[in-house]
Amino acid sequence: MNLLDKHSVRALRACVGTCETTLIPRAQWYRLGREARDQLTEAGFRRSQARGLCSACYEYARDTGTIDQYERRLRPSAWLLEDFEHIRDTLPVGVSRAERLRRAGDRLNMSPEALDLALRRAGVAA
Ligand SMILES: [Zn+2]
């Protein structure tokens, strides 16, 4: 079994810094136990810090004064929408809108209301 599937996490994309490590979203990372995080770290994954950067690249950019070269990625972000669409597409057909928002919200660490609002603002159908 794939390590990501085993821990029910989805790697998003490579760090936009120099390391090109594949990042795991913070919300997913913090849901994991220490053992799972250690396994993922050993396999070469890193927690997303901010601005599309891993923690090492983030700290380097901050310390060298280049952090402003990296765009902030505040919610509702492309990442949130990608996560939501991925979760939505894995739900069984016929699940109600409220149920979709509840289940996706659980996995994104957001209330259904906050997720609904973010999706409405972004013009994405729940
Ligand atoms: Zn990096």
Structure description:
This protein folds into 2 domains: 3-69, no CATH class; 78-122. It is built from 7 helices and 3 strands, in the order αβααββαααα. It is globular. Helix content is 51%, strand content 9%. The chain has 126 residues and is mainly α. Bound molecules: zinc ion (ZN). The site of zinc ion has 8 residues, from strand 3 and helix 4.
Short description:
This protein has 126 residues and is mainly alpha-helical.
Task: Summarize the SSE layout with pairings.
Blueprint: H1 3-6, E1 22-24, H2 26-31, H3 34-42, E2 45-50, E3 53-54, H4 55-63, H5 78-90, H6 97-108, H7 112-122
Parallel strand pairs: 1-2
Antiparallel strand pairs: 2-3
Helix pairs in contact: 5-6, 6-7
Number of strands: 3
State the strand order across the main sheet: 1-2-3
Order of helices and strands: HEHHEEHHHH
Mean pLDDT value: 86
Q: Give a list of the ligands.
A: zinc ion
Number of helices: 7
Estimate percent helicity. Answer: 40-55%
What Rg do the Cα atoms give?
A: 16 Å
Structural domain tally: 2
List unreliable stretches of 5+ residues. none
Q: Distance between termini? A: 30 Å
Largest sheet: 3 strands, mixed
**Beta-strand share of residues:** 5-15%
Q: What's the shape?
A: globular
Q: What is the SS-derived class?
A: mainly alpha
